[in-house]
Amino acid sequence: VRINSVAIIGGTHGNEYTGVYLLKRMKINKIHEKWEKLNIELILGNPKAYEKCVRFIDYDLNRSFLIKDLNNFDLSGYEADRAKVINHKLGPKEASETDFIIDIHSTTANMGVSIILHGDNQYNFKVASYIKEHLKNVFIYYVPEDSNADYPFLNSISPYGLTLEVGPIANGIVRHDILEKAEIALYKTIEFMYLMESKQMLELPRQLEVFEHVKTVDFPRNSQGEISAIIHKNLQDCDYPPLEKGMPIFYTLEGNTINFDENETMYPIFINEAAYYDKNIAFSLTKKVLRNIY
Ligand SMILES: [Zn+2]
User: Fold this and answer.
1) How far is the CA of 64 from the centre of ligand 1 (A)?
2) pTM
3) Predicted confidence (pLDDT) per residue in 120-164, tens digit
4) How far is the CA of 284 from the centre of ligand 1 (A)?
5) 16 CA distance to ligand 1 centroid (A)?
6) What is the number of other CB atoms lying within 10 angstroms of the CB of residue 268?
7) How close is the Cα of 294 to the center of ligand 1, in Å?
8) Which residues are within 8 A (CB) of 258 and not within 5 positions of it... i.e. 6 or more apart?
9) Distance 107 CA to ligand 1 centre (A)
10) CB 151 within 8 A of CB 145
């Protein structure tokens, strides 16, 4: 694997300010000079949504990168256009000029520093392992994917990359502690690529603990389709610890507790994520697995 060009994106979702402020900091600190062997591009993903402090204007930008949509010039909307601009600048997807894309996001869930990896890619797993070795409270969230299928994420433009997801943080604000952790994770990502390109030997554990996506769990709804129960207080902020059968997950508006009812131990994440209410998603479930990274 040769990595020469890296793109760092913040503000793909306009109300997630951590990434945007990291871009500002990197410009002030002249990141290009620090890592001169790598060609680093800094991009504000969704400037209009950032200006208005909203997730998106017409459509989720991080779901706008399917090949068929990038090639569809009848598709209207700000993000449909913006995706084509970004694809032109960094891609084009499937013949990308950019080797590695780091897309910075934030979450209202208590997920610490989460590295989201889509698909089976040993290089990406090694980067994630390197970050985990150098920073506390790092979790790897792995979404298995069919390598022949197309994916709508901004990251899918380049052959390698990851999504950095930090939290808990409200939308539209910046927090020093979260910004600091995200920055370390980001710099460790670049450092890994830099050291690999400099042919330096890196000692990494042979196995990596990853949380593999199983499914999403919807909020309970009434006959009108409205959400009829909230996240139970015992589950709130418990992203990543094990969830066992019988543990409370929801509290209904009538005052009843709904318990987890699956036999297998699961590891919940994105608990009470603000951006998922309109999709009726309460949290996601993962299973913990060890992966060989060599
Ligand atoms: Zn986001």
Assistant:
1) 13
2) 0.96
3) 899 999 999 999 999 999 999 999 988 778 999 999 999 999 999
4) 15
5) 6
6) 24
7) 30
8) 220, 229, 232, 248, 249, 250, 251, 252
9) 7
10) yes
